[in-house]
Amino acid sequence: MNRSLLALVPLVGSLLLAGCGPSAGGDCDGGGFVCQERVLALECRGGAWHELPCRGPLGCRETSESVRCDTSNNVAGDACASSAEGTGLCRADGQAVLECRQGVLTETATCSACTVENSQVTCQP
Question: Which contiguous run of DSSP H or E holds residue 45?
Answer without folding.
Answer: strand 40-45
